[in-house]
Amino acid sequence: MVPLAGGNDAGGSIRIPASWTGLIGLKPTQGIITGDGSSIGAVNFAETKTMQDTNSLFESMLNPSKASQVPAAPTDLKGMTIAYTTKSPVGTPVSDDAVQAVQNAVSFLKSQGFNMVEVDSPVDGVKLMQTYFMSATSSGSTANFLINQKTKSNMTFDQVSPVTWALYQASLKLPANARTTYTNELALIDQQMTAFHQKYPLYLTPTTATTAPSNDDPAFLPEYVDQLKNIGSLDSPQQLQLIYDAWLHGLTKTPFTQLANFAGEPAISLPTYVSPSSGMPLGIQLEAGKNQDRLLLKMGDLFESHGLFKELSHQTPTPTPTPTPVNPTPNTPSSSSSSAISVSTSSSTPKSPVTPNYASTQPFIAYTLKKVYLYNQPTLLKMVGLRFIAKHLARIDQCSK
């Protein structure tokens, strides 16, 4: 539909959708994009379709005062050592598709003269995620502040999602040393990754552990809803453990992206794989040391120039007939697409205009007049879920041209 789509990434929110929709997703180094802060947090960039667009956008968004900190990529990449793994940093399963995506990349990079070394995660992934969720309690506190500003009272469970409620409740009981715990963990990760990149300039993993989940697969399992609702009765360690446990169902699919955020490092998801069984895409992720963004961009160029970016099978252009809209009769409610006027096959009977089924060819907007929880709305999920987006994005693009 468009060449690029802006986004921000505080834990994978650019790279994960890119992996699941066959796009390029770059998370730049923390603090080098104009407008971004240097403290660990969200980084702004975009999802793109080509490396040319990715490179152009990066150069245009790079903060001029930080440009000198971002060196050019080496002229010759041959002989560079790249670490890789297909193991989840939190010990959760990794799909055969994700493993195959990395193995394909490893074989290609070996053929290009890179030294490939299989390693385990350089940091404790479980500890990282525990710290990640502890820091996320600030978003619950912020949500309550905004609600209080508007309503003059604190949030209630029914006003927000169960996780937002849980994060707010957990923010009320954080120990006094929580900030120190957080900064110490960031310092340890920085130390570990600095040492890691001295040996391995690049770190290759799957971007996601699975292809896009089905539309009715919730971010967290419904049985945790009541537990999250009553989280206020627990002490702080129990609260943080419950949040981790409740989110583990979703984290299992996306355990690889958070490290780059907490390390402040650049990472890029490249669309190099489509599952032969499901036809769904899955990206590989390359992570580099701080300010080595141009090295990642050059690696993206390498994969793209060798024809390794995979289009979805349904991205193959197919002729699309141009529908002829019917002028509706005044004061007559429009009918649904299932009640389209049929076309007579008799040569003696004039053909009636066909009411086009816009639902099959046009993008749509779904909206609600009241708050809904997507985890228990399978019908709505089937309409707007990730699988719909992945399957129809390119076709809609063709229809809009």
Automatic annotation (TrEMBL):
Region (Disordered): 312-355
Molecular function (Gene Ontology), one example: hydrolase activity
Keywords, in A-Z order: Hydrolase
Amidase domain residues: 1-297
Highest taxon above the source species: Bacteria
Pro residues: compositionally biased ranges: 318-331
Low complexity: compositionally biased ranges: 332-355
Family to which the UniProt record says this protein belongs: Belongs to the amidase family.
The protein's name: 6-aminohexanoate-cyclic-dimer hydrolase
Species assigned in the record: Lentilactobacillus sunkii DSM 19904
